Amino acid sequence: MNLKERRDQLLAEAKAIVEKAKGEDRDLTYQELQTVEGKITEVKSINDDLSADAKSANILGQLDDMARGQDAGNGDRFLSFSKAWAAGAAEKVMPVGKKALAADSAVFIDAELMTTPIPMGRPATSLLNVLPVKMHDQPTFGYIRQSVRNNAAAVVPEGQTKPESDYTIIKIDNSLDIIAHLSQGVARYWFDDAEALKPFMEEELSYGLRLAVEEKVLEDIDATSGVQTQAFATNKLTTIRKCITKLEVLDFSPSAIVVHPLDWEEIELQLSADAAVEFRGLPYDPASRRLFGAPVVVANVATAGEARVLASGAVGVDTDKLGVRIEWTQLFQDDFATNKVRARCEGRFATSVFQPMGVVIADLTAA
């Protein structure tokens, strides 16, 4: 009998004792109470053991992911706040055929998960397109971070001591943070027409939440000890290429280049200028917005004058299984008196930096 079977047996036995007393319309005897409490204590102990086993399996799974490298082809999923997701949110808040908005009610919208981060031939439109997401049952969790990779494998004569490689790993305790925002108060009668609500839902709530998640991810990456840095070298293109080299010498594959729109403007103008002979022939695909083979993410939340080059599997996004909560209410300041409603949109998110040396932060500003 395994632990789960033993737990089920104990619960059934305890329930039978309680049901017997109920059927006889009496309280539990002292002996019955002691027996039930004993079984409950054993059940709690088994639950602790099962939880520890699950955490161990999770850690081993993370080590396996590090060993084989994470990419879009191994079953990773990617978080998306697309118009389709926003339309689904609007549909839950105001179903088809219902003309009035039900205020003071909340709904959870499942997170939209994409198995393909970037459609073939199309550019990445969000940082979340290139970072795998993991969903958690609890707001606190742990993950394994590799802080050192020093491979010492070599030919060893028979009888000689084998060299020791250093693959230092540490356990990181993390937790999901609430990311939320409110709309301004809007006249309630405007929502009698569903068409007036849906554009707001589609364009503003999802857009604002996505930007906040992206900003948090970049802040968490920047605050992580052990990430690599690259000083400005000749021009922005050369600097970014040197970042890729820093990843490649550690056997990482670049998965994304993250830049601010102002920096990307200058880079594209350099690439397309007639006089830019030195840039001709560079591996750049303007249609899919790939540079040196890696997708370029142009993000307003990025810092102008900096670039971040990320390796495959180095960083991930975390969220819970509840999804995004959207709630409309009149219970804010004088909204009820003025017949206005406003929305609150929120979710819980975190960032996991599995391999800090798989991140390079570059200075794109000449000294």
Write the H/E string, N to C: HHEHEEEEEEEHEHEHEEEEEEHEE
Kindly, what is the distance between the CA atoms of the first and last residues, rounded to a whole number of angstroms? 69 Å
Q: Report the uncertain regions.
A: 67-74, 95-99
Provide the domain count: 2
Q: Outline, from the CA principal axes?
A: flat
Structural class: alpha+beta
- Proportion of strand residues: 25-35%
Mean pLDDT value: 81
What share of residues is helical? 25-40%
Task: Identify the CATH homologous superfamily of the largest domain.
Answer: hypothetical protein PF0899 domain
CATH architectural label of the largest domain? 2-Layer Sandwich
CATH classification class of the largest domain: Alpha Beta
Note the total helix count.
7
Number of strands: 18
CATH topology name of the largest domain: hypothetical protein PF0899 fold
Structural Rg:
27 Å
Largest sheet: 7 strands, mixed
Annotation keywords:
single chain, 25% strand, seven-stranded mixed β-sheet, 7 helices, alpha+beta, 367 residues, 2 domains, hypothetical protein PF0899 fold
TL;DR of this structure?
The protein is an alpha+beta fold and 367 residues long. The protein is 35% helix and 25% strand.
Topology:
Blueprint: H1 3-23, H2 30-68, E1 78-80, H3 83-93, E2 105-109, E3 112-114, E4 133-136, E5 140-146, E6 169-175, E7 177-182, E8 186-187, H4 194-222, E9 228-230, H5 236-248, E10 254-259, H6 261-272, E11 284-285, E12 290-291, E13 294-298, E14 306-311, E15 315-320, E16 324-329, H7 335-338, E17 340-353, E18 359-363
Parallel strand pairs: 4-15, 9-18, 10-13
Antiparallel strand pairs: 1-3, 2-16, 5-6, 7-17, 8-17, 10-14, 11-12, 12-13, 14-18, 15-17, 16-17
